[in-house]
Design a protein that fits this description.
two-stranded parallel ribbon, D-Maltodextrin-Binding Protein, domain 2, 23% strand, 9 helices, six-stranded mixed β-sheet
């Protein structure tokens, strides 16, 4: 009789606690990537997407003890989507610029990026912007590559073709519609490794910048949680291993895949919080 009573009390206690337990469970993180931006995110045989960003942020969510839903959409829709509340943060590699950092909060960078041209095999290599006079450059819509190409196009006399995806911009080069495409170094090099008719050409070293994860300006707590997870993954070598897997190259000693920068955000950019904090990485 006593045992039955104890069991009944335990069941009542469990039922009473259930709503509280349910309230403690946070909803899945909602985010998005450009699903055509190989090797960062790309269609997977059998359905779904795979790539560096997918591995990276699935692991980040796991360390935050959150589930995650990653949409594959056009890059140009990601920032408006986050600002409209559809996404909690952006998992696509996002170049940190002053203009963007004034409107969003960024984590610290997790890898370096730089701008690079891709051309068709047999085309004369590009030594500088002046070599593009009278030609056409293809870019991915809504990216810093589009912005810079348009600025330089006015200055040096070339036209800019804007496409919804980087593969479309690359195809414009292969089909002869454009002389070159301007994109991120990782995706240009990856495309060249997969297509013998496409060549990774001039890299603009002066454009080196942080690729980081943006969150809405009013959510510094999420920025801190994301960065803490990323920093712990730098510390234990997880990001370095992912970078080597997807980019085919071990990160250098000064690479953001391994370097933990102080504070939260990107030093020198708007929204940077230099306050020191202790990094606590779970087992």
């Amino acid at each position: 009789m006593l045992n039955r009573r104890l069991v009944a009390l335990a069941v009542v206690a469990l039922i009473s606690a259930s709503p509280a337990l349910a309230q403690d469970k946070k909803p899945p993180l909602r985010t998005g990537v450009d699903g055509t931006f190989a090797p960062h995110a790309m269609p997977k045989l059998g359905g779904g997407i795979e790539g560096f960003q997918i591995d990276l942020f699935n692991e980040v969510a796991k360390r935050m003890k959150r589930e995650i839903v990653i949409d594959a959409v056009s890059f140009s829709t990601l920032i408006p989507g986050m600002q409209a509340g559809r996404y909690d943060f952006i998992a696509a590699p996002t170049t940190v610029t002053k203009e963007r950092a004034e409107n969003m909060l960024f984590t610290a960078g997790y890898i370096w990026t730089s701008f690079q041209f891709g051309i068709k095999k047999g085309s004369a290599p590009i030594k500088g912007w002046e070599d593009l006079k009278g030609k056409a450059v293809a870019v991915n819509k809504g990216t810093p590559y589009e912005k810079l190409a348009k600025e330089m196009g006015e200055k040096h006399g070339f036209t800019v073709q804007v496409y919804d995806t980087q593969p479309d911009a690359t195809q414009a080069v292969l089909s002869g519609r454009a002389y070159a495409t301007l994109g991120g170094n990782t995706t240009i090099v990856y495309a060249a490794s997969k297509n013998p008719q496409f060549v990774a050409d001039l890299e603009l070293k002066e454009t080196r910048a942080h690729w980081a994860a943006p969150v809405p300006k009013n959510n510094p707590q999420l920025r801190a949680e994301l960065q803490d997870a990323l920093d712990c993954m730098k510390k234990d070598g997880t990001i370095a291993k992912m970078a080597e897997k997807w980019f085919g190259k071990k990160p250098e000693a000064d690479d953001l895949a391994v370097v933990i920068t102080p504070g939260y955000g990107v030093p020198g950019m708007p929204g940077y919080d230099p306050t020191p904090h202790e990094l606590k990485c779970g087992g």
